[in-house]
Write a structure and sequence with these properties.
The protein is of the alpha/beta class. 42% of the residues lie in helices and 14% in strands.
Amino acid sequence: MLTAATRLREIEESATVAISDLSRRLRAAGVDVIDLSGGDPDFPTPQHIVAAARDAMDEGFTHYVSSRGIPDLLDAIAHKLKTENGLPLDAPGESILVTPSAKFALAATLLALVNPGDEVIVPTPAWVSYDAMIRLAGGIPVHVPLAPDGFRLDAADMRRALTARTRLILVNSPNNPTGRVLAEPELRAIADVARDANLLVISDEIYERIVFDGAVHRSLGTLPGMFERTVTINGFSKTYAMTGWRLGYLAGPPRIVREVLKVHQHVVTCASSFAMRAGVAALRGPRQSADEMVAAYRERRALAVPLLNAMPGIRCPWPEGTFYLFPGFRFRRPLSSTEFASLLLERAHVAVTPGSAFGKAGEGHIRISLTNGRDRLERALERIRRVLADVD
């Protein structure tokens, strides 16, 4: 009997996608499920962005374009990365690659940089797809668990994880699922380890504009000696509510981008042409809609965190960024995060993501997404409160 490739044996379906799919099936069956599990903003894509894509299609801009991306978008991304992030991009046509989603940018970069048996350091809890992407590239994910009290990154823990096979560090800030924004000492620690061990770094910065309470995002590639070894990943899904558009990009030293381009050309050729026009409009157009989304997340955060902390057995820190909460739980009756998430879905009809989906360091937590309006979010939290009254 024919079977799948052996590299898929250690890879499970995406936990977050699976939960979202189950929620949709339950709703289709008439169950009033409130889905707090996904990463899809509940806002429409801003109209000026939609109009740019519509105009492009009306003009017949619907064919292949340069694999690297259209010049206007490369220039717009370069301007954004130089002026907002401080990355030294002197040659946009060589240092940037536009991709069909930031997720694909990550996968293509790993395929281009990781050899079979290479180890990739991943501070955890971490997004569910990192491990799968590393394994698909033939690599071995090496988790560096962060202490649950604050999820702070420690250089000594990273150094203990190094071996002769370590090739790369993969970091995400603002972090999904914890909501942490790496502080300057943590960024310097990553840079010190990378330089000392001569490692490459992938910096996933997709949530960079969703930050709160004075938290400041800084791109790792701006630290001394880091641009030449860092690939910065970003995109349009979270900031501009463009998840369905599948548009992202990566930036880094030309010698690395050229290698990632080979993967990109042979797998997808190019990102969608008219979506690229939309990307130009997003970067060069008004910021009001994006700022309003962040303000809404801030208000939902202010609603949800105190309500969760008032529930028995729940401790929810204030996230510094992203639109996720990552509350910890502890009840008299022991429950795993998967059991707790199942309980909430079955009895409260509220979908959340179990913390174990983000690695062993996520156990004892659940991830709650703030991508529902205030009324619906409040209703979901009230349902959770009622269930917890019976659990604790």
